């Protein structure tokens, strides 16, 4: 672990003042405009029951997943198979971690995005001009045995609880990748095979209450660079997704997980499935905890769509690239609404 560094975590900023510090204030014109957000009833995104995924009605569930990937890029799943006690344990240990004294948490601090295990704040404090209202712990978690010994050991149950959760999350990610493959008319194992040896990262996001939520973001609009994201959130709202140019609030549904398509599935599906912009808004009343699992190709995997998805009407959307090259580009670029994928379009299709 690196030594403690001067950059304070957010939780201390909050304690010090009832106002958002200038380091976290977005320029006018780049603020959330909370009044124009759509608050739909229900979850705000399709809600899919996975109960029948391994039964006689598999085809129907697969079709529902395919259509959500095509139109929304986001959906929720219930009956996803991760036991309730495992989910509750994950949220509890996340809360306990962020409630530890700052001196204890700072043992994991690093601002180097290349580190496999680190606590940090905002998104990338090395490159961004305005910070975000978020602290986060990032953990690599597959293959588990390569990383678990480097994870925090305080709270004392952290490693055991998070190992169990991340193993369950991986099993669900694999089931979803199979369903996604089938929904594209491909072999069930296609996506799993296309992603090489696989990797899995997890973030534990902590968004403290914010005195002026209209001035800043938990996370500004971005698309996830990985293949598929499984988001566990506590009961507090904050996630919003973009649909037809408008922001739509995703309302937490008890026992459901949010799934979203990342840039790699967009590329592997040759643009049929969409990696969609999303952002996180903070609020003045309560802290919010979310735990995204980022399921990824291994760094050396070469990302290119199946031949069956490329034809005269659907020319190759991206030059084949390694996931490592993509990931480096993503972190260098910073969170912004411009899609990192656009940088990998064939030269003649590029807008920039
Ligand atoms: C992310 C993300 C959403 C949330 O970490 O990439 O989009 O609700 N998180 O925290
Ligand atoms: Ni995201």
What does this molecule look like?
With 352 residues, the chain is α+β, with helices and mostly antiparallel strands. The chain has one domain (3-349): B-lactam Antibiotic, Isopenicillin N Synthase, Chain (Jelly Rolls, Sandwich). The chain has 9 helices and 14 strands. It has helices at residues 10-16, 58-71, 84-98, 102-105, 144-147, 158-183, 190-194, 263-268, 323-333, and strands at residues 47-49, 74-78, 117-121, 135-142, 199-207, 219-222, 228-233, 239-243, 246-249, 257-261, 278-280, 288-296, 302-303, 321-322. Strands 1-2-10-7-12-5-4-3 form an 8-stranded mixed beta sheet. Helix 3 packs across helix 6 (158-183). The radius of gyration is 20 Å and the shape is globular. The protein starts with 9 loop residues before the first helix and ends in a 19-residue tail after the last helix. 43% of the residues are buried. Mean pLDDT is 92; it is low at 1-6. The site of nickel (II) ion has 3 residues, from loops. N-oxalylglycine binds at residues 203, 205, 219, 224, 231, 233, 238-239, 278, 280, 290, 292.
Fill in the keyword field for this structure.
352 residues, alpha+beta, Jelly Rolls, 8-stranded mixed beta sheet, 4-stranded antiparallel beta sheet, disordered N terminus, binds N-oxalylglycine, binds nickel (II) ion
